């Protein structure tokens, strides 16, 4: 009988141990499940936050260049001076002749202008998309639009600024390519849009510039300097369908482009100045020959010194 009782107690003890182990395993499994669920939720929330941050940053960088926003967001102020920056003003010269407020208060006309400006923006915004990117535009940044005038500049990013210091002025060659692309774009717009005959003229200049951010609310990024003012004057005194530039810029472009002299033009605040038109790009053979000749002169000059 005692043996039987011990046997029963042993079975009961084993059963209790077995049940205890099962309970412990179940609790552990439940904790893991809860922990996995919490981690999964945290991971999902983190992914959403990162995507929202990416979208916000991308939107902010359409208003303020990335190299500027990095400093501005930490110091809440920014300004910087450059030795050589290319600046253009491209104006839709006859937009205000087209503008009419009698229908929808001019909304339809503004939509048309918006389509033109967006076509130009698309060329520069695609720089961030490797699949669409044209490497020539990577140093070019839109500054702003003023009425029907599109303002852009090249050489403001740190990499291009350093290349310019080392004597590489290729970015303004690309900026001039961009000007011709603008003229081509407005022609295409007229072709595909019924009844429009918009024209453009472009002012071009190259020289010292200061960029910076003004304000704390609704901040404005802009560039200032005599280079900017003269670029604007090149546009306002220019000729429809042409790109006008001062004589001082021609040496930087002459290897790549045809730049015939226009003659003396009265420029407000400057008096009479000799200006040139840039009328087209030279052939690849001419460009190659010009660059080779320039390199040879540079080598001979360094040997003589």
Order of helices and strands: HHEHHEEHHEEHEHEEEEH
The proportion of residues forming helix, as a percent range, comes to 40-55%
Q: Which sheet architecture does the biggest sheet show?
A: 8 strands, mixed
Rounded Rg: 32 Å
Return the average pLDDT rounded to an integer: 84
What is the tally of beta strands? 10
In short:
This protein is of the alpha+beta class and 305 residues long. The protein has nine helices and ten strands.
Give an overview in words:
The protein has helices spanning 2-63, 66-75, 95-98, 107-125, 158-165, 170-192, 226-236, 250-253, 284-304, and strands at 79-92, 140-146, 149-154, 200-214, 220-224, 243-246, 257-258, 261-267, 271-278, 280-281. The strands form two sheets. Strands 1, 2, 3, 4, 5, 6, 8 and 9 form an eight-stranded mixed sheet that branches. It has 305 residues and is α+β, with helices and mostly antiparallel strands.
Secondary structure elements and pairings:
Blueprint: H1 2-63, H2 66-75, E1 79-92, H3 95-98, H4 107-125, E2 140-146, E3 149-154, H5 158-165, H6 170-192, E4 200-214, E5 220-224, H7 226-236, E6 243-246, H8 250-253, E7 257-258, E8 261-267, E9 271-278, E10 280-281, H9 284-304
Parallel strand pairs: 4-6
Antiparallel strand pairs: 1-3, 1-4, 2-3, 4-5, 6-9, 7-10, 8-9
Using brief descriptors, characterize the structure shown.
305 residues, alpha+beta, 8-stranded mixed β-sheet, two-stranded antiparallel ribbon, 10 strands
């Amino acid at each position: 009988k005692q043996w039987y009782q011990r046997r029963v107690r042993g079975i009961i003890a084993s059963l209790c141990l077995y049940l205890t182990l099962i309970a412990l395993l179940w609790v552990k499994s439940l904790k893991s499940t809860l922990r996995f669920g919490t981690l999964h939720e945290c991971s999902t929330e983190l992914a959403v936050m990162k995507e929202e941050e990416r979208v916000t940053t991308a939107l902010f960088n359409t208003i303020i260049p990335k190299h500027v926003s990095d400093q501005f967001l930490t110091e809440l102020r920014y300004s910087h001076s450059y030795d050589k920056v290319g600046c253009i003003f491209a104006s839709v010269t006859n937009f205000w002749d087209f503008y009419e407020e009698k229908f929808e208060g001019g909304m339809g006309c503004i939509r048309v202008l918006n389509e033109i400006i967006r076509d130009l923006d698309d060329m520069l915004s695609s720089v961030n998309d490797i699949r669409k990117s044209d490497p020539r535009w990577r140093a070019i940044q839109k500054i702003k639009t003023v009425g029907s005038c599109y303002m852009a500049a090249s050489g403001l990013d740190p990499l291009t600024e350093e290349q310019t210091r080392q004597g590489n002025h290729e970015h303004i060659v690309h900026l001039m390519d961009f000007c011709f692309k603008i003229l081509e774009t407005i022609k295409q717009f007229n072709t595909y849009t019924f009844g429009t005959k918009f024209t453009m003229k472009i002012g071009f200049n190259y020289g010292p510039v200061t960029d910076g951010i003004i304000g704390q609310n609704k901040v404005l990024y802009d560039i200032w300097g005599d280079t900017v003012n003269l670029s604007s004057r090149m546009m306002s005194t220019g000729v429809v369908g042409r790109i006008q530039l001062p004589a001082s810029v021609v040496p930087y472009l002459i290897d790549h482009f045809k730049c015939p002299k226009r003659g003396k033009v009265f420029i407000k605040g400057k008096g009479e100045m000799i200006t040139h038109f840039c009328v087209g790009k030279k052939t690849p053979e001419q460009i190659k020959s010009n660059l080779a000749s320039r390199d040879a002169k540079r080598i001979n000059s360094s040997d003589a010194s």
